[in-house]
């Protein structure tokens, strides 16, 4: 016998990646939040990893789109279609979300209209309940922080489109800051740098590759280099240049300055007791961008605050949304009263959807 009554999902709808956790199964899907759309018909040609593989290689008639930009649903229909496709992938042909409870993480500071759009995306297909949770809270839970205690915990989540710093205590967000610098802004800086330094035009995927292979924020050993292929901007022909880790190291200074500044201003915003807790307990790093080499060491050097990299930095948010499900199972009523939750004002709405 299996419990067919209600499926439970924790979803991290990120600007770069969508990660889905299913209660009882673990992480069941991890795909880039990308689609490829045919320009003539507006039809979606590919989703996720398949669409991502087309970046920089798509013919003129295909447009590559990130439906979530800077953590916000920039196109409601495309976001819905993408999420629907991912759920189908998990469920096979069964109606997705039917009789399910979904916790979905949303970025801190989005408008109520955008929040509503996220909930509707999920409820639209018949989920019983869609509860949005703020991403820092989900990430902190996923990283194993004791967010319910009367103690200040700080988390820095470096995603694709944005990075967020948040201080949490007693299950709620006390202070937070979001910056538009994240993994993607580093890729853009690399594209600009290679253009200026070598007169070479490179694509997004190449830039990300350089970041992952050469990127470091602590002084690299000499001799770490990589051949980079692109198009010569003067002659218009393919050309290969060699980029060193040292160059990327220097380039990343600006990113570090922004992160340190964001941490400082969030600390300034919160009560002194909580700031004291953070100085003592340290900061948890998570998000794909936190995999940047040496980030914990460098940030600790710059801020003089202990920095810890989360166990599964990129999966934290989905895991945390999943933990939220388990909390609900255990305590039953937590959702209505706790400040940690965005109240599920959508109950009536979902009942109505369910009867359709
Ligand atoms: N090893 C790595 N080093 C540096 N950046 C990385 C690494 N792996 C992934 N990233 C970056 O992490 C970002 C995605 O992080 P993620 O937390 O999944 O974003 P989001 O929450 O916005 O979907 C991308 O910009 C990606 O390039
Ligand atoms: Mg994220």
TrEMBL record:
<keyword id="KW-0547">Nucleotide-binding</keyword>
<keyword id="KW-0067">ATP-binding</keyword>
<feature type="region of interest" description="Disordered">
    <location>
        <begin position="333"/>
        <end position="356"/>
    </location>
</feature>
<dbReference type="InterPro" id="IPR043129">
    <property type="entry name" value="ATPase_NBD"/>
</dbReference>
<keyword id="KW-0133">Cell shape</keyword>
<protein>
    <recommendedName>
        <fullName>Cell shape-determining protein MreB</fullName>
    </recommendedName>
</protein>
<dbReference type="InterPro" id="IPR004753">
    <property type="entry name" value="MreB"/>
</dbReference>
<comment type="function">
    <text>Forms membrane-associated dynamic filaments that are essential for cell shape determination. Acts by regulating cell wall synthesis and cell elongation, and thus cell shape. A feedback loop between cell geometry and MreB localization may maintain elongated cell shape by targeting cell wall growth to regions of negative cell wall curvature.</text>
</comment>
<keyword id="KW-0963">Cytoplasm</keyword>
<feature type="binding site">
    <location>
        <begin position="160"/>
        <end position="162"/>
    </location>
    <ligand>
        <name>ATP</name>
    </ligand>
</feature>
<comment type="subunit">
    <text>Forms polymers.</text>
</comment>
<comment type="similarity">
    <text>Belongs to the FtsA/MreB family.</text>
</comment>
<dbReference type="InterPro" id="IPR056546">
    <property type="entry name" value="MreB_MamK-like"/>
</dbReference>
<dbReference type="Pfam" id="PF06723">
    <property type="entry name" value="MreB_Mbl"/>
</dbReference>
<feature type="binding site">
    <location>
        <begin position="208"/>
        <end position="211"/>
    </location>
    <ligand>
        <name>ATP</name>
    </ligand>
</feature>
<feature type="binding site">
    <location>
        <begin position="288"/>
        <end position="291"/>
    </location>
    <ligand>
        <name>ATP</name>
    </ligand>
</feature>
């Amino acid at each position: 016998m299996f419990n067919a009554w209600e499926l439970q999902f924790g979803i991290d709808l990120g600007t770069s990646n969508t990660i889905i956790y299913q209660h009882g199964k673990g992480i069941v899907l991890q795909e880039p939040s990308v689609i490829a759309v045919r320009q003539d018909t507006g039809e979606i040609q590919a989703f996720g990893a398949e669409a991502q593989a087309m970046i920089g290689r798509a013919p003129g008639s295909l447009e590559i789109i990130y439906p979530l930009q800077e953590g916000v649903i920039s196109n409601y229909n495309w976001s819905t279609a993408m999420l629907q496709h991912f759920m189908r992938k998990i469920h096979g042909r069964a109606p997705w979300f039917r009789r399910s409870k979904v916790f979905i993480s949303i970025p801190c500071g989005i408008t109520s209209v955008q929040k509503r759009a996220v909930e509707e995306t999920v409820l639209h297909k018949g989920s019983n309940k869609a509860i949005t949770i703020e991403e820092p809270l989900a990430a902190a839970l996923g990283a194993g922080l004791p967010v319910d205690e009367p103690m200040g915990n700080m988390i820095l989540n470096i995603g694709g489109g944005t990075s967020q710093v948040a201080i949490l205590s007693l299950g709620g967000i006390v202070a937070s800051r979001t910056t538009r610098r994240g993994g993607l802004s580093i890729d853009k800086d690399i594209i600009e740098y290679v253009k200026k330094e070598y007169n070479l035009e490179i694509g997004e995927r190449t830039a990300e590759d350089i970041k992952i292979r050469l990127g470091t924020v602590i002084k690299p050993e000499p001799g770490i280099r990589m051949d980079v292929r692109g198009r010569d901007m003067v002659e218009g022909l393919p050309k290969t240049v060699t980029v060193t880790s040292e160059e990327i190291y220097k380039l990343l200074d600006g990113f570090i300055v922004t992160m340190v500044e964001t941490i400082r201003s969030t600390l300034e915003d919160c009560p002194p007791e909580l700031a004291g807790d953070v100085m003592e307990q340290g900061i948890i790093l998570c998000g794909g961008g936190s995999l940047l080499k040496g980030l914990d060491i460098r940030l600790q050097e710059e801020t003089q605050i202990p920095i810890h990299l989360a166990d599964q930095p990129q999966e934290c948010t989905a895991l945390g949304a999943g933990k939220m499900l388990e909390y609900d199972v255990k305590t039953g009523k937590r959702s209505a009263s706790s400040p940690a939750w965005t109240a599920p004002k959508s109950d009536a709405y979902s009942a109505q959807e369910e009867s359709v």
